[in-house]
Amino acid sequence: MMLTVTLNAALDLTYRVPALTPHTTHRVTEVIERPGGKGVNVARVLAALGHEVTVTGFAGGGTGRVLRERLADEPRVTVAFAPVAGATRRTVAVADAATGDTTQLNEPGPTVTPAEWAAFLDTYEALVHRPGTTAVALCGSLPPGVPVGAYALLVRAARAAHVPVLLDTSGEPLRRAVAARPDIIKPNAEELAELTGFHEPVRATRDARRRGAHAVVASLGADGLFALTPDGGWQARPPAPVRGNPTGAGDSAVAGLLSGLAEGLPWPDRLARAVALSAATVAAPAAGEFDRTTYEDLLTRVAVTGRRAAA
Ligand code: ATP
Ligand code: MG
Ligand code: MG
Prior knowledge:
Layout: E1 2-6, E2 10-17, E3 30-36, H1 38-48, E4 53-59, H2 61-72, E5 77-79, E6 82-83, E7 89-96, E8 102-106, H3 114-129, E9 135-139, H4 150-160, E10 165-168, H5 171-178, E11 184-185, H6 189-196, H7 201-210, E12 215-219, E13 225-229, E14 232-237, H8 249-262, H9 267-283, H10 292-299, E15 303-308
Helix pairs in contact: 1-8, 4-5, 6-7, 8-9, 9-10
The structure holds adenosine-5'-triphosphate (ATP) and magnesium ion (2 copies).
Family: Belongs to the carbohydrate kinase PfkB family.
Keywords: ATP-binding, Kinase, Nucleotide-binding, Transferase
Protein name: 1-phosphofructokinase family hexose kinase
């Protein structure tokens, strides 16, 4: 059983309109409502790969109730959100059918009180100590009210429970949590440059490891993944850039890395899986979903170069 944490979960709403024009009324031709937030997306991909997964974080209000119910209906997903008094945020994506462009509106989410944060920590502690928890992913930004050192605390708790932990966040929460020695971080190029001050992946990943991360997997958009790990350094690339919707590609990369970690796959195989999954997510029209045939085809064609560290 894997665990994903989404402190800033959301109910994602997509409206499709024929053509988006300011100051006019639009006829909505399609509405999609589904649970969202980064760790929730990771969980959905893990479940699609056949893994059992528990989702935690915060859920509250009417939107939180919908979030829990919808997730509970998904096969292989167990829901374990902690309560928050405010309502779970909504995000609204307005998809313009004429251009293919999307306009995104994101609510900030409810403010978490100190008592709610403390109650979440109890829930999380119980989940990481539960027998059978094989890996945990901490994903996304922090909602208002949650302390900036939150992820550092959650990394330490997972490590104390001997559960490997993958972190995908940015800014100051990432900086603090890296010092708590997570097993894997998955920054994109911009997040890694902000953390380290280096833009060049070799120097930047080396610096991030020096700051405390055991393995650093930088995601480089269409250039795939660049990984520096205790076992060696590799780059995994898709056979060609994929055109499509990159929303949620990073979350699919995290799901690939987490499942590979839980299954004990060697690093090159984990990276190949993560690249194939994330590229297949770009290829799928709906954000955060992947096309299985494309995934299986890409898996045979991802190029992994690099080398194992000297023993
Ligand atoms: P997110 O917005 O989901 O957080 P991110 O910015 O963290 O994403 P990216 O580096 O943009 O992450 O993308 C994650 C992975 O998705 C890449 O490492 C790559 O494997 C795959 N990917 C992204 N864009 C493309 C593309 N155009 N073609 C092929 N693969 C892609
Ligand atoms: Mg990106
Ligand atoms: Mg990302």
